[in-house]
Amino acid sequence: MAKPLLGLLVWLFATTQALALEFSHYHSQVDIDSYLLQMARERPELVHFHHLGSSEQGRPINYLVISRGDPENLPAIFLNGTHHGDERASTETVLGLIDFLILNHQSPQLKELLSSYAIYLQPLVNPDGFALGTRFDARGFDPNRDYAFPGRSEEDSFKTKPIRLVKELVSSMRFRAALAFHSGMEGVLWAWAHTADRAPDHDLYYTLAKLTAGAMAMPRYVQSYHDYPALGEFIDFVYMNYGTLALTVEVANEPSPPARELAGVVRRAIGGSVAFMLAILELDRGQLRIEHQATSASTTWPASIPPAKIATTRGRQGGGASPLSR
Ligand SMILES: [Zn+2]
């Protein structure tokens, strides 16, 4: 392991032990929205609250922007959770990141990042699904199949209100990079999801996903299509339209793991996300060493994982314990 990365991981391990928010239980939307407002009120120079719109059933959809600079004049990174309402570990991950960025915004590790980018954090993409405890939106549509992609026009997509709101945000911001958090397996996935063809930035994606997964000690990082093919995902839309370097990060093996495991899940996901954002900073300074993925996606498995284990971990469509997540 490279020395700077090891140093980062040691720092992340130490700093993520002390978060201000309690992750011994899951938060309600009321908790979440009052937390977002409170953070913006307490630190107006750093944290900005925005109301994006409301869901089909009238629930508010809000996000924060955290930056040490002027958000209007900086490139932006978008971190979102809860495309799928029942994947509550993804919601908590965004809350953990907000907490972590605010607590550590003066650390040498984050100072530059937060001075160079505006970080957009949306904990609840799909608040109706969250309230109803379902993957889908209030009308039964899957939000992460609702985006346009190279095989489907915008007119034939964006049937759900929360995803139309995300579209408004991403089309005005044209994010440099993004992470969409999900939960139901552990791993990091990159575009494309709709085709086995490699994306133009395949090796860069491979490098970013490997770093992100490595910081979480997750062995799985693969082009999303090779996890399973899916049409209409967030990562494909923002990459296709804006060149946003977007990953799906699956933070835990269950959509909503037992509360006693939650703090560990959130800490680990913070580590992966911070490693990702720092890699984007390095990339934009021309300092990121891009690795080339030599052969097919299957070689991303470390040799130490026995084939039987690979088969069960991969088997999400073929009767594996965990259903669809992303
Ligand atoms: Zn999901």
Outline the structure in words.
- This protein has 326 residues and is an alpha/beta fold.
- The chain has one domain (3-314): Aminopeptidase, CATH 3.40.630.
- The chain is built from eleven helices and eight strands.
- It has helices at 3-16, 29-42, 88-103, 108-116, 127-132, 161-173, 202-215, 224-227, 234-242, 259-284, 307-314, and strands spanning 47-54, 60-66, 76-80, 118-122, 177-182, 185-190, 221-223, 245-252.
- The chain has an eight-stranded mixed β-sheet, with helices on both faces.
- A hairpin with a 5-residue loop joins strand 1 (47-54) and strand 2.
- The chain is globular.
- Zinc ion (ZN) binds at residues 83-84, 87, 144, 182, 325-326.
- Zinc ion (ZN) binds next to loops.
Can you describe this structure in just a few lines?
By secondary structure, the chain is α/β, with parallel strands linked by helices. Helix content is 41%, strand content 15%. The protein has a single domain (3-314), classed as Aminopeptidase.
Please describe the structure with a list of short key phrases separated by commas or semicolons.
41% helix, 326 residues, 15% strand, binds zinc ion, eight-stranded mixed sheet
Distance between the amino and carboxyl termini? 30 Å
Uncertain residue segments: 296-322
Q: What's the Cα radius of gyration?
A: 18 Å
Question: The CATH topology, please?
Answer: Aminopeptidase
CATH class: Alpha Beta
Please work out how many helical segments DSSP would assign. 11
Distinct ligands, ions and cofactors found in the model: zinc ion
State the CATH superfamily name: Zn peptidases
Secondary structure category: alpha/beta
Q: What is the count of structural domains?
A: 1
Strand content range: 5-15%
Structural shape: globular
Q: Classify the helix fraction into a percent range.
A: 40-55%
In total, how many beta strands?
8
In order across it, which strands form the biggest sheet? 1-2-4-3-5-8-6-7
Major beta sheet summary: 8 strands, mixed
- CATH second-level architecture: 3-Layer(aba) Sandwich
Mean pLDDT: 91
